[in-house]
Amino acid sequence: MKLPAAGPGRTAIVLSVAVMLVAVPSKGADPDARMEDASKHFHHGVELSDDGDWRAALIEFERAYAIAPNFRVLYDIGQCRFQLHDYPGALAALQRYLTEGGDLVPPDRRSAVDTDVQSLKGRVAFLHLVTPQAGAKITVDDAVVGETPLASPLPVSVGRHKVAASKPGFRDVVRYVDVAGEETADVPLDLEVVAPTVTPTPDLAIVDSPARPARSRPIAPAVVAFGVAAVGVGVGTYFGVTALQNKHDLDAACDHGSCPGSSRPLFDDAQRNALWSSVGFGAAIVGAGAGAAYLLFFPRGESSSKPTPSADFRVVVGPGSIGARGAF
């Protein structure tokens, strides 16, 4: 199958088709211009096919047929598609050529075209797409051929083909199919539903809770304990110094261990002051130990949202007395 070679025979065919294009009734307001346009595209197609530019020739022939349909142009369209290895397209064009031409096709040409049609059928296969999803876009070799359900199996050239199906909300499916001549191959295309991505609405949005305040230990108990220790040190020191003064006065009143009766008050004061000094220093030891133990071993607690008042502690020492004053 190939286009007739250039020459007298080829020229006669071109002139015959050109005349038929002019004779075909036209549609539109300016039939003469349409016929002239169709004839121009047909002649361009002939020139391009003589040069072997089959793709460009096919475009020109199909444009001429669209402007002024004539069954004779279908023969040239079929020849171009054959040269481009588009066997299903060539088969369809030649079958339409015989159908639309009817008795106008010369017997010898009909016989030749019938032979070409039988040869082309051995180069064409069919794809029967099997899918439960309607409205899926189908592509064969990356060219869109329609949407499911398709009315009939798709004609394709023999060989390997890439078949794909896609639909919004479903995962794309791609299959590679090898088909032989006059074979009808079933191609399953089961699209899987894609789980929708859930975007949280403002009402359902998860809001991080504010950071919890750092756990801290109230220091008031430690301040009190260390305050007691400070008071104890003050009391112990004051009464210790006083006891030493009492002992010094008592030693001055006594002579070699012999003390007059008048020194009895000094002795009692010395004992009493020594006792209070011991009590003061004992309290200081207990307070300091309690404060240190609290800071080291007492568990931390949640800090309060209320501000912790600052501690104010003072040791008050006066003539003949010692004490503490503060706020916590």
CATH architecture of the largest domain: Alpha Horseshoe
**How do the SSEs run, as a string of H and E?**
HHHHHHEEEEEEEEEHHEE
Percent helix: 40-55%
Number of domains: 3
Largest sheet: 4 strands, antiparallel
Please give a structural write-up.
The protein has helices at residues 8-23, 31-50, 54-67, 71-83, 87-101, 107-121, 220-253, 264-297; strands spanning 124-130, 137-140, 143-147, 154-157, 159-166, 170-171, 173-179, 184-188, 192-193, 312-318, 321-327. With 328 residues, the protein is of the alpha+beta class. The protein folds into 3 domains: 8-121, Serine Threonine Protein Phosphatase 5, Tetratricopeptide repeat; 125-193, Immunoglobulin-like, CATH 2.60.40.1120; 220-327. Helix 2 packs antiparallel against helix 3 (54-67).
